[in-house]
Every structure is written in C-alpha cells, then in structure tokens.
Amino acid sequence: MKPHILYAAYRGNAAAGSIYAWDLRGPLNTPTDIFRVPCRNASRTNQRLHFDLDITGRWLATGDHDGNIATFGLNESETDLEHTSEDPTEDRQVIEHQPTICFKAHDGMNFFSRLASWH
Predict the structure, then answer these.
(1) 5-26 pLDDT, tens per residue?
(2) SS3 for 113?
C-alpha cells in the first residue's frame, strides 16, 4: 500500500474518463501516472467515474454503464521520488498506463422484463 499516492478520476473531454495519480511527497503541478481506459466511452454520458483499489494496493479497477471492466496492476506503476530525481521540486515525467485486463462483465440483461412475461 502506498498512502502517499492520491488517485482521482476525471471525466472531461480531453481526459475521456482517465484516472490520475499524484505523489503527495513531491510537486503536485502534474500527476505522476495516468491510467487510460480504452473501453470507456465517456462522451456518451455525464455519469460519474468510479474506481476502487484492492486492500493490498496492488490493483485499481473501474467499470462503466456498458458493463466494461478495466483493471490496472499498480506494481507496474513504480514512480518513486527516490528513483526519479535528486531534486524533489523538479517536474517528473508522467507515465501513461493501459489496463492489465479489460473485459465485458455483462451484456445488458434485463431481468425484470422476463418476470413480467411469466404471468
């Protein structure tokens, strides 16, 4: 677990539903990591972007209203201030990540319409 990393979701047009990470021990003018979700169609909705971290801090997961799930391996995101620069005020390079796994969880099944036809 890395308590010094702050994650935030952004759904603006340019970000298209990306999740950003900042290392709170250094300058906050640019994020350290951007997690891009290629299966998300953010332009179709004004829905909030939700995500979660597992209890060990190794996985970040997010989904959308179409049933797409994307997970990112956070161990692949090893941006650590001790390894990037001697000067903590120096801007760091932003690392962009693609999902480790991206899959469709459901295909829009409507349970209640089937119940209505059983009467």
Answers:
(1) 999 987 666 556 789 999 999 8
(2) helix
CA 29-31-35 angle, 5° bins: 155
pLDDT tens-digit series, residues 95-111: 999 999 988 887 655 55
Strand partners, 10: 18
What's the pLDDT tens digit per position in 53-79?
999 889 999 987 778 889 999 975 555
Residue 89 exposure: Cα atoms within 13 Å on the Cβ side: 0
Q: Return all residues near 56 (Cβ < 8 A) that are at least 6 apart.
A: 1
Q: Are 37 and 50 in contact (CB under 8 A)?
A: no
Q: Which of 86, 87, 39 is nearest to 61 (CA)?
A: 39
Closest among 98, 99, 100, 91 to 31, alpha carbons compared? 91
DSSP helix/strand/coil, 76: helix
